[in-house]
Amino acid sequence: MSKITIGVLLLGPGVQMLDLAAIDVLGMLRTDYMSGIPIPDELKSMGIEIEYHYISESGSEGGKGWHGVTGGGKVAVTDSLQTCPPLTHLLIPGPPPDYDPSSAVKKFLSEQLESPNLEAFMTVCTGVIPVLKSGLLANKTVSAPLKLIPGLKEEFKQTTFVEKRWWRDGKVWSSGGVTNGLDMMSGYLREVYGDRKEVVEMLLGMADVGDRGQEYKA
User: Fold this and answer.
1) DSSP letter string over the chain?
2) Computed over its alpha carbons, how large is the radius of gyration of the chain?
3) Which of 1, 96, 128, 148 has the largest count of CB atoms under 10 Å?
4) Taking the alpha carbons of 89, 107, 61, 92 in that order, is the dihedral positive or negative?
5) With the C-alpha atoms ordered 75, 78, 83, 86, is the resulting torsion angle positive or negative?
6) How far apart are CA 31 and CA 48, in angstroms?
């Protein structure tokens, strides 16, 4: 993979700030990041170009739009649902659990999931809920926040829920609670970039993101 174009879909008021940390784990593979750290040149050559897009339903006119996150923070929005370019990856951090996606958001999620360009469709914590409400996870197996799984099982009977830190079903990657987004992204790097195992493990070690495994008891 020569380039990643990743979109972060910001939905509802108060997106969980810590959910966004998962994108930074992936970002450690950036060519420009790796060029500035003290590692052998042969490892630096394994870097990947990464282009980021922060997407909201309304977008950003003139690049001045912001989307609120927890902790009183704001994220600069770069794209709307309509102006977002083709993506290779989509990350959906968690909105408030009672967030209901609009028809435009449902359409966007469906188009992304069905796109042949998209290699990974990722949800962190409650980020899985708008996808469930869009009817896109029928006959799929996903992870979700542990405390919410009983209620989700009742509401979305066509979806199988697993009590795991993260789970993969095809191109759909889902995680449990907030910090499990880091576990999911670490698992993604280890599984997808096995040909760069040395550099992946070195970067995850630098970030002190261990391999806790998918099982909560681990």
Assistant:
1) --EEEEEEE--SSSB-GGGGHHHHHHHTTBHHHHTTSS--HHHHTT-BEEEEEEE-SS--GGG--EEEEGGGEEEE--B-TTTPPP-SEEEE----TT----HHHHHHHHHHHH-TT--EEEE-GGGHHHHHHTT--TT-EEE--GGGHHHHHHH-TTSEEE-SSEEEETTEEEESSTTHHHHHHHHHHHHHTGGGHHHHHHHHHHTT-----SSTT-
2) 17
3) 128
4) negative
5) negative
6) 5
pLDDT above 90 for 217: no
Tell me what pLDDT residue 90 has: 98
Decide the pairing of beta strands 89-92 and 120-123. Answer: parallel
Task: Give the model confidence (pLDDT) of 149-164 as tens digits.
Answer: 999 999 999 999 999 9
Q: How far apart are CA 114 and CA 51, in angstroms?
A: 21
What tokens does 168 get? 């993969």
> CA-CA distances (angstroms) from residue 60 to 9, 65, 79, 90, 165?
13, 4, 6, 18, 34
Cβ-proximal residues to 109 (8 Å cutoff; 6+ apart), any chain: 9, 101, 130, 131, 134, 136
